[in-house]
Amino acid sequence: MRLRLRREDRLVAATVGRSDGNRTKTVTRGGSRPAATAAWGTTALLDRRPVAVPWAVVYDRAVSDLVITPDDVARAAAAIRGRVHRTPTFSSKSLGPGQHLKAELFQRTGSFKARGALNRVLGLSADERRRGVISASAGNHAQALAWAAASEDVDALLVMWQGASTAKMAATRGYGAVIDLEATDPGVAFARLYALQEQTGRVLVHPFNDPVVIAGAGTVGLEILEDVPAVDTIVVACGGGGLVTGIAAACVPAGVRVIAVEPEHSNALALGLAAAVPVTLTPETVADALTAPFAGTVAIDVCGQLGVEVVLVSDDEIRTAFRFLYERAKLATEPGAAVAVAAVLAGKIEGECVVSVVSGGNVSADIASAILKGP
Q1: Could you tell me if 77 and 124 lie in one domain?
Q2: In this structure, is residue 32 part of a structural domain?
């Protein structure tokens, strides 16, 4: 299934203000009529489930007005150069003519998340470093922020949830972070994150709705442009939307089409683009790295403006891609990182020169062996 928004339905304007002491976000579609207004901390207006989700995120510095541009991504690349790996991009004839794989599973901490987390931590002020950082994550951002914080001698607290990957929890602790495990699911984890951030005064480093983090993630796109100059299509797995937003900001202005791929039962960006505001959901997918309970406002704004398309894949298609990457490309990836390739294998992607981002490799042995064994 492919969702492509009509031009008049793309998000073209957004403002953030205050009303009666509450932060509100008013979104306009088509440049004219109001589409929705959501109050800070209230239950999602477009969802039946009582999950409290703030539409915008309070930061210690004014970053909500940043427009992510290729220059922003280039600055991030300069900041993190030499501290993260420049991962390889290689052709894959077994995947098809003109197909390439960006092997970001070889990144520090095992996923692309290290880029954005480090970019954000490097920009902390002395006071922010003293206060420490906090975030919520299924595991990849948790590991990345724990690593980045430790590398700069900054204390880190990560909110995860019961049932999250024990391997990712162990790695996060191994980098020196403290984990809060009171939450029972992703939605509750994010609600707890905002409460703990207010209580502790820590600096919030959002996993997918921080422009500085997103700019760091976008450096993946810059490397693709350098390594595959003829690329016309980049395919990216999507959870909360940070990676695809950063890549789109870097690459769409260069004339490259960017496609987000989501599990069909964890399709936060597709829902958010259609509604022009974040829509909460209860994710259900084998791709645990892509279980964001809503898409970020930055992703909705930027992807809407840049015309990013969304393709949905089934869990069976994800498992098939996981086995393909292991058996044919020799990449021991995680299920969420196989999502882009799943769309290609399913015939849902068109392009003469296509790069699929294999975004991470943090998977436990039991999950990997169960998928490789097959039905």
Answers
A1: no
A2: no
On the question of pLDDT at 56 being above 90, the answer is no
Number of helices (H), then strands (E), in the chain:
14, 14
d(CA 183, CA 136): 10
Helix, strand or coil, per DSSP, at residue 357: strand
Domain boundary among 160, 184, 208: 208
Does residue 84 lie in a domain region?
Answer: yes
| Residue 362, pLDDT score | 86
Per-residue pLDDT, 186: 87
359 is catalytic: yes
- Exposure of 180 by Cβ count < 10 A (0-12 exposed, 13-18 middle, 19+ buried)? middle
**pLDDT tens for residues 323-371?**
999 999 999 999 999 999 999 999 999 999 999 999 999 888 888 888 9
**CB 140 within 8 Å of CB 167:** no
Mean pLDDT calculated for residue range 128-154 = 95
Residue 285 has pLDDT above 60, yes or no: yes
Q: Where are the alpha helices (DSSP H) in 166-280?
A: 166-174, 186-200, 211-217, 219-227, 242-251, 268-275
| Overall number of domains in the chain | 2
- Name 22's bridge partners: 19
User: Residues near 81 by Cβ (< 8 Å), separated by ≥ 6?
Assistant: none
Q: Choose the catalytic residue: 113, 137, 165, 266.
A: 113
Mean pLDDT of 148-160: 97
Q: Rounded CA gap, 359 and 139, in Å?
A: 13
Q: Roughly what angle, to the nearest 10 degrees, separates helices 297-306 and 268-275? A: 70
Looking at the fold, whether 193 and 326 belong to one and the same domain comes out as: no
Residue 3 pLDDT greater than 70, yes or no: no
pTM of the model: 0.82
Q: What is the dihedral of CA 209, 214, 220, 225, to 10 degrees?
A: 120
48 exposure class (CB count in 10 Å sphere: 0-12, 13-18, 19+): exposed
Q: Quick one: 219 and 317 in the same domain?
A: yes
CB distance 116 to 212 below 8 Å: yes
Full residue range of the structural domain in which residue 190 is found: 115-208
Last residue of a domain, one of 162, 177, 208: 208
